[in-house]
Amino acid sequence: MKLTGAELRTIRMPLVTPFETSFGVEEDRVAVLVRVIGTVGGDRRPTEVQGWGECVAMELPLYSSEYAEAAAAMLRTFLLPRLLRASAAGTDITAETVDALLEPFVGHRMAKAALEMAVLDAQLRGTGQSMAGYLGATRPTVPAGVSVGIQPSIATLLDVVADYLADGYVRIKLKIKPGWDVAPVEAVRERFGELIPLQVDANAAYTLADARVLRRLDAFDLLLIEQPLPEDDLRQHAELATLVRTPICLDESIVSPRAAADAIALKSCSVINIKAGRVGGYLAAKQIHDICRANGIPVWCGGMLETGLGRAANAALAALPGFTLTGDISASDRFYEQDITDPFVMDDGQITVPTGPGLGVIPNQSVLERFTVTTEWIQA
Ligand SMILES: O=C(O)CCC(=O)N[C@@H](C(=O)O)c1ccccc1
């Protein structure tokens, strides 16, 4: 497509309840959104298209080195000007070429992913193909899993889990950290039985010296332990994998298809959480899916508290055949009283994959305005 301009918007959305992880407590979500405007169909029959991208970088650099303000600066100063200049010079801007065009800029995968997502959405709205169709989805719905934050007490945790199970969630993920691990998992197992699919997410809060504690989790038949050790420690994850029986799943460590291939080769994990924003976009996410499938590694789609825009794309991704484990694809009301798109709702534990062109959803302008902190127009 011929890129004519882009809107860069920062929104702030209140969370329905504080969300505590091993790296902090979030009361609201700050998100950077990109809307690209362009034309397709050449000079003969130019048709205007627009596409939306959502950056998953948090307000603070606690999950990864990226954060919202830095992502906005990257998009404003380097990434969008690069694409706009290339387009003005006659380059056809497609989702498949964004990564190569942005390659000179090192890192900033979440910022790049948001821009690639916007270009892909615009491109697909132009052709009429859905994101699910483009990625190769094979299912019309995906199972809904929920991520449960660290709670003030075990009693509160059990009430929260009971509510989510009553809502129909088919998989429970518990955030853990040193001092909040064996006891909450044991309590959930005792209260709700052995049958509910249960996993834990440490967000890199442990070290290999904690292997004894992590091995105690083997007693609870967990689906996996997610990212127990620091992001850059594939070797020690491989060591830990020989000490605990529960499958090790990596999240923060898997920053690219190459990292996925390395982690598999080094036996650092036996499950991978794929987050398009973390790995540089939905095309890289699909590559990781394909690498894992070729190596017999099950994958699932992680969440980053996305609005309905990212949620739509994640539902499409999670419908690919290698996504055999339930992901963090929850209903919009898990985090938001009001989503910026029509809300994603759960139906019998399932989330429906959008079938419209592109993402298949668009923001509700008045809700978007209500949550907007800043918006700016970027053009060549
Ligand atoms: O369901 C969701 O969207 C959230 C899933 C979740 O727990 N995400 C975690 C994570 O570490 O995977 C996270 C939360 C906040 C910020 C970054 C990551």
UniProtKB/TrEMBL annotation:
Domain Mandelate racemase/muconate lactonizing enzyme C-terminal: 154-247
EC number: 4.2.1.113
GO biological process, one term: menaquinone biosynthetic process
Cross-referenced InterPro entries: Enolase-like_C_sf, Enolase-like_N, Enolase_C-like, Mandelate_racemase_C, Mandelate_racemase_N_dom, OSBS/NAAAR
Keywords: Lyase, Magnesium, Metal-binding
Highest taxon in the source lineage: Bacteria
Enzyme class: lyase
One GO MF term: O-succinylbenzoate synthase activity
Cofactors (names): a divalent metal cation
Gene3D superfamilies: Enolase-like C-terminal domain, Enolase-like, N-terminal domain
Stored PANTHER family: O-SUCCINYLBENZOATE SYNTHASE, O-SUCCINYLBENZOATE SYNTHASE-RELATED
Name of the featured protein: o-succinylbenzoate synthase
Provenance organism: Nakamurella multipartita (strain ATCC 700099 / DSM 44233 / CIP 104796 / JCM 9543 / NBRC 105858 / Y-104) (Microsphaera multipartita)
